[in-house]
Amino acid sequence: MSEQPRILNNRYQLERKLGQGGMATVYLGRDLRLNRPVAIKVLHGQYASDEQFLRRFKHEADAAAQLGHPNIVRVYDIGAEGDFHYIVMEYVQGTDLKEIIELQAPLPVPRTLAIVRQIAEALQAAHDSGLVHRDVKPQNVLIDSNDYARLSDFGIAKSKQSSALTDPGTTFGTADYLAPEQAQGLGATPLSDVYALGVLTYEMLTGRLPFSGDSPLAVALQHIQATPPALRNYNPSIPPQLEAIVLQAMAKDPAQRPQSARAFAELLRLYRERGNQATMAVPSANVGRVPAAQEPADVRPPRQQPAPQARPRQNYAPPLAAQQPVPMNPSTEKRQSSGCGLWVVAILLLVGIGALAYVLMFTNVMDSITQAFGGKQATQVVPTGEPTPAPEMVEVPPLVGKSESEVLELLKSLELGEQRKAPRNDLAPAATVIEQDIAPGTKVAKGTVIPFTLSLGPAQVEIDDVTRQQFEVASDTLTRAGFKVIRKDAPNQTIPAGFVLSQNPPAGLKLAQGSEIELVVSIGDMVTFPNIIGIKRADAEAILAARSDLRLDIVDEQGPDLIPNFDSVEPNTVVSATANGQPVENGNFIPRNSVIVIGVRRP
Question: Is the confidence at residue 277, as pLDDT, over 60?
């Protein structure tokens, strides 16, 4: 190119080179007619004479231009001037995902999921339109400063598949993300894009590609034959459930993968939601605690046994034979155990015989006393020691959720003691019982001390600034800090759909955990449909005529065949409306510059 900026077809000025690939060079340009920056992709000269390639290139670029998805780089124009064949596209100020991976990977799980789900939605829109990308890789994903992702290179990506892996100009990136069926020379399908997206996710989470080799062919063979290493080999912090989802997307058999890009995104969404629930659950004190390791038998200190209770002296001496221990044969461990068992039996026999002798002796004494009193038995036998009456039992009441004063009064009325344990922060109001050591309903003796824990109230946490972040990432940040997130949608001409416009309360304030934070989220460049259904036709037409962001196309006069309550509606009253062919109601958000059709009750 000459030093003077080149202008294509008197409209697109090439300003500076942004990047170069095997098939095209991308320039930052300017649309002189609309005075806006654009990205201009100029094909390399060797493709200019390939008529079949150029026809496919134009067809697929036209198809990409019709997608109109917010996560797909918009195609504005396609043209040629001499040997220059070019595509004019939306200019995304940011960087490609490959550069982010090289500088920052492994990326945090919430950020990875947010970006991958955007790419998956873009792919689903393409697949729904009959277009397979065939070259999903981080170099073809553009990320702006708000982490908003846009998928690019639809037209060229499909055409590249007509070249073999060893053709000049083919990049290593193609082989790195190539589905096994593509590597085998079979036709690419939407599930091939799902596989590539799985590899991309693998790389974002680990900072590594699953397969590497000295040539694209060596890498392609591994995609066909080799099992990808577990992600946790490179990043142990990756949850096993997430690892399983990524590896499922990389299954060799397309039938084993998620059956659409949206299905893959849905698996990630469900994982994220379940992960948040697990994070917010309050485990019991023993959950996740590692048991103490057992010491070896030869170094373990002996357990301290409780001291045996003193037995009363026996007046009866057992026979000598019963006192002699049973000899043990130490030849086997089993016989040693049997010897111990015999000792136990012998001791029990001794105790039993002694007790029996004591009872017989006591009976003989009582008979003698009876005879001394003329054959009459004593009317009362007083055993040794004073009798102990049974304690009065009460049920422990439920304390959790009650105030401290209520609990103290309740325990006092039941004649139970109280013990306040160290209080802690909790979402419950301050001075409210949040835990009791003895479960409600347990029967205990009066006077028993009941330990319980009081709340200090919610902890005060500083609110992070989550504006200009994707809603999923912002919500995850605030939820993990202990806040409840309320979403409110609003249109915005400059901030892409799904990103946070504002938050209330603002960042920097300290708020109690459990408090609600409202996030206003962009729904993109949308406008509000005016309240014209139910008013007169002339008034509705006047309202629409005053709107520069809507265009009235047709007024459809409708009869009883379309209006069920035709006779109850006044003539020339607006009864329905559509925006871009879709039914719409008063107050709905619709795309800017929508084409409006209103239905009125005919005169």
Answer: no
pLDDT at 60: 63
Strand partners, 86: 42, 79
**Residues near 73 by Cβ (< 8 Å), separated by ≥ 6?**
39, 89, 90, 92, 142, 150, 151, 152
Q: Give kind and range of the element (H or E) at residue 190.
A: helix 190-206
> Is 70 exceeded by the pLDDT of residue 191?
yes
Residue type, 508: G
Tell me, what's the pLDDT at 155?
55
> What predicted TM-score, i.e. pTM, was given to this entire model?
0.49
Backbone angles phi, psi at 221, to 5 degrees: -65, -35
Q: Say whether pLDDT at 443 is over 70.
A: yes
| pLDDT tens digit sequence for 381-429 | 444 555 557 889 999 999 999 999 999 999 999 999 999 998 888 888 8
Instruction: Give, as one character, the DSSP assignment of residue 288.
Output: T
Residues annotated as catalytic are 135
* Residue 370 · residue 377 · CB < 8 Å: yes
pLDDT for residue 249: 96
Cβ neighbourhood burial of 520 (10 Å; 0-12, 13-18, 19+): middle
Alpha-carbon distance values, 513 to 82, 372, 425, 429, 467 (Å): 65, 85, 10, 11, 20
Say how many Å lie between the first and final Cα of the chain, rounded: 67
- The packing angle between helices 190-206 and 97-104, to 10°, is 30
Predicted confidence band of residue 355 (pLDDT cuts 50, 70, 90): low
How many Å separate Cα 480 from the centre of its chain?
12
Of the candidates 172, 140, 181, 169, the one whose C-alpha atom is nearest the C-alpha of residue 157 is 140
Backbone dihedral region for residue 312 (phi beyond 0: left; psi -120 to 50: alpha; all else: beta): beta
Alpha helices in 331-486 (DSSP H): 333-372, 404-413, 471-480
Provide the pLDDT for residue 377.
Answer: 41
Q: Compute the average pLDDT of residues 515-544.
A: 94
pLDDT per residue as tens digits for the range 57-67: 676 677 677 77
Per the listing, tokens 């996710």 go with: 201
* Cα→Cα distances 454→280, 402, 414, 514, 552, Å: 20, 10, 20, 18, 64
Reference 64, options 117, 121, 126; nearest CA is 126
**Mean local confidence (pLDDT), 474-484:** 90
The pLDDT tens digits for 555-580 are 999 988 888 888 899 999 999 999 98
Q: What average pLDDT does range 179-204 have in this prediction?
A: 93
pLDDT, greater one: 269 or 311: 269
DSSP state of 142: E
- Spell out the domains of the chain, with CATH numbers in brackets: 7-90 (3.30.200.20), 95-279 (1.10.510.10), 397-455 (3.30.10.20), 460-524 (3.30.10.20), 528-601 (3.30.10.20)
The answer to whether residues 189 and 132 touch, using CB atoms and an 8 Å cutoff, is yes
Query: What sign has the CA pseudo-torsion 212, 213, 219, 222?
Result: negative
Asked whether the beta carbons of 172 and 209 are under 8 A apart, the reply is: no
Enumerate residues 6+ apart whose C-beta is below 8 A from 588: 528, 529, 579
Strand-pair category, 582-583 with 516-522: unpaired
| CA 1 – CA 29 distance, rounded (Å) | 14
